Recover the amino acids of this structure.
């Protein structure tokens, strides 16, 4: 009995080892021969591909680069586990495998990119949404930052102009300064065009999980709709899918984020999306790759705002009629922001001061 | 005053019922497993399988039979729920095989199931949908009105436009209570959980009864997962169970291993969960509210409120030779 058990265990071990070897052999066989290609990798934020917003935008940028420079680059994208704990491992994996340019998508990558970039000085990094202090043009990290508050200001104004109940809502993902930037811009925009409007505001949580909880997103949105909000803006990644569900259930409107979500959501939700706050992560990723291929890569900081169309509001076949009447007003506000006449607040504290400057 | 009235508003209760359902179904499953004497902490993993296969069944059925689904839209979610139940049973079968037939420690097997489920769901998702963490959107059930009750204006949101799975779930509670208390199967299951040697002596197959209990728990946890994916979120999302399988175990214990008790406990969890989402302007942070039912559970388990009466042979593998 003892011997049999031992031999069984040995057999099992051999089977596993054999499987691993076969697996490795097949992977090696797939490696294409030919001239050395530049290797470009992406590690997504929690929420992962298919969130129809933030991460899918990054993927779109990578895809565009792949289509255009397909013969010169080789790309790979990885998704961290649900909690995102292994994001640094994945960065290190890519760097260790000799990738030349690696993107960390999302604010949560800030510390990890900083550490890994120090360990691999010859690898270039792109960090979306994260801010690492004291970078120069020669650094191997490029922080790709967005003026989300500017775009949020415009959709806030759009929501206020379109609201009939005079109550609108905001659903944030994780409660961090980055998402509060969306909130501050949204409230500022709404109050700027309608000083007496009421803005409800909720967050899904305080961890990365808050970006991937559509169940909670739906309940939060339903609660806001029940409190008479008729338009809800979400800045919550995958959680926002629940917000759209709620909008369908209650027959109200919602505003998307990052991507033009009218185009990415399900059929029945499209008509319920007033517009989306565009955050062109795809442009940021694509342009960084392009610069890298052309040997123009620069470390440091790059900001995408209204002025260079890095953020904005979405217009498409589904919402064109809905926003036709307010479009001139939005364009006018956009010009004012670009010209610096309106200085959009970026935080709760700045919002307080901003609200005092609005004439009642 | 505003928040005092909002504590009992219909919208809140409707929300609480929605949040309660997945916990309730899984807790119900746990009752069957533990009444038969098998601890199943793999329920979280089985639920994960349920969420994944619920979405997969729904999605691929709609793709495979578009004309059929066009005619009867609810067929797709039904297929999803069935797929989730089958996946749950298959997963529970592993647990039953390992713990009942091979008498491995039940906790370890459960933990292994949870780990396996998380990895397997991701692997299969990449295989089927070429992305790791979520499925495409799927169709839910057409909401229904409860006949007779729907005309009572005071009940409003509670009886109109609700998910048919809620009705099924509540019926299952009543049926389960009856099965455990009044049927031969229920009596035998409980006997096997209390004193398997006695049951065995009387000619009841301990193995068969325990398999039945564990497989039922798998079916119910799978269904709970399907509810999350198909009815709540309309897609599969990695980690969307958020530990509800474990909360369900707590609810089952809090409910003293009875279906009706599990209903009460799940409703308590669901109510506080919904409350923490709804009442934003309470003087205390919402985290305190959502932690309340868990504190109560600990107090109950510690015997402060009443003695928990678990089945005597719960968690103990049974073998004829060793007794």
């Amino acid at each position: 009995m003892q011997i049999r058990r031992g031999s069984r265990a040995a057999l099992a071990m051999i089977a596993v080892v054999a499987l691993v070897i076969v697996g490795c052999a097949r992977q090696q066989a797939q490696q294409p021969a030919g001239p050395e290609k530049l290797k470009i990798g992406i590690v997504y934020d929690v929420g992962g591909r298919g969130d129809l917003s933030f991460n899918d935008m990054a993927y779109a940028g990578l895809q565009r680069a792949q289509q255009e420079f397909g013969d010169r680059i080789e790309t790979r994208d990885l998704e961290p586990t649900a909690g995102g704990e292994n994001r640094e491992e994945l960065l290190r994996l890519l760097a260790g495998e000799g990738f030349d340019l690696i993107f960390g998508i999302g604010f949560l990558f800030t510390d990890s990119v900083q550490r890994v970039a120090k360990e691999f000085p010859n690898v270039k990094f792109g960090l979306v949404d994260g801010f690492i202090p004291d970078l120069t043009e020669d650094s191997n990290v490029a922080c790709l930052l967005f003026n989300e508050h500017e775009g949020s200001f415009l959709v806030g104004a759009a929501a206020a102009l379109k609201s009939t109940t005079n109550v609108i809502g905001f659903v944030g993902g994780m409660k961090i300064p980055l998402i509060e930037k969306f909130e501050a811009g949204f409230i500022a925009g709404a109050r700027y065009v309608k000083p007496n409007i009421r803005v409800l505001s909720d967050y899904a949580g305080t961890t990365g999980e808050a970006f991937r909880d559509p169940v909670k997103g739906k309940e939060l949105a339903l609660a806001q709709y029940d409190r008479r909000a008729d338009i809800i803006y979400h800045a919550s990644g995958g959680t926002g899918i629940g917000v759209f569900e709620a909008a369908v259930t209650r027959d109200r409107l919602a505003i998307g984020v990052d991507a033009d979500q009218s185009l990415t959501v399900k059929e029945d939700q499209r008509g319920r999306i007033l517009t989306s706050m565009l955050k062109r992560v795809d442009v940021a990723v694509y342009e960084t790759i392009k610069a890298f291929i052309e040997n123009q890569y620069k470390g440091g900081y790059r900001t995408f705002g209204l002025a260079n169309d890095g953020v904005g509001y979405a217009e498409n076949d589904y919402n064109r009629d809905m926003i036709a009447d307010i479009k001139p007003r939005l364009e006018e506000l956009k010009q004012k922001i670009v010209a610096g006449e309106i200085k959009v607040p970026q935080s709760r504290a700045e919002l307080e001061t901003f609200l005092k400057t609005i004439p009642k | 005053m505003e928040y005092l009235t909002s504590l009992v508003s219909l919208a809140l209760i409707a929300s609480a019922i929605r949040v309660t359902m997945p916990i309730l179904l899984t807790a119900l499953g746990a009752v069957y497993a533990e009444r038969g004497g098998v601890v199943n902490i793999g329920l979280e993993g089985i639920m994960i399988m349920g969420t994944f296969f619920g979405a997969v069944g729904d999605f691929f059925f709609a793709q495979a039979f578009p004309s059929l689904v066009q005619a009867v839209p609810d067929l797709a979610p039904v297929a999803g729920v069935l797929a989730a139940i089958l996946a749950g049973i298959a997963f529970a079968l592993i647990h039953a095989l390992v713990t009942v037939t091979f008498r491995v420690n039940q906790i370890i097997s459960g933990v292994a199931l949870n780990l396996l489920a998380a990895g397997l769901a991701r692997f299969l998702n990449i295989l089927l949908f070429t992305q790791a963490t979520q499925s495409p959107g799927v169709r839910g059930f057409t909401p229904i009105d409860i006949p007779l009750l729907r005309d009572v204006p005071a009940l409003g949101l509670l009886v109109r436009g609700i998910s048919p799975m809620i009705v099924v779930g509540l019926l299952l509670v009543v049926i389960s209570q009856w099965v455990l208390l009044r049927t031969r199967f229920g009596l035998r299951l409980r006997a096997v959980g209390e004193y398997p040697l006695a049951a065995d002596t009387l000619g009841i197959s301990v193995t068969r009864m325990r398999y039945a209990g564990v497989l039922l728990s798998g079916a119910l946890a799978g269904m709970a997962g399907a509810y999350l994916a198909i009815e709540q979120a309309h897609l599969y999302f990695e980690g969307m169970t958020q530990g509800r399988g474990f909360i369900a175990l707590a609810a089952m214990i809090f409910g003293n291993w009875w279906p009706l008790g599990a209903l009460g406990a799940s409703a308590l969890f669901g109510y506080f969960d919904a409350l923490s989402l709804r009442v934003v302007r309470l003087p205390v942070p919402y985290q305190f509210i959502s932690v309340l039912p868990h504190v109560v559970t600990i107090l109950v388990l510690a015997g402060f409120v009443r003695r928990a009466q678990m089945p005597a042979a719960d968690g103990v593998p049974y073998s004829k030779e060793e007794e």
In short: Chain B has one domain: 2-135+154-301. The longest helix of chain B spans residues 206-233. Chain B touches chain A through 28 residues (CB under 8 Å).
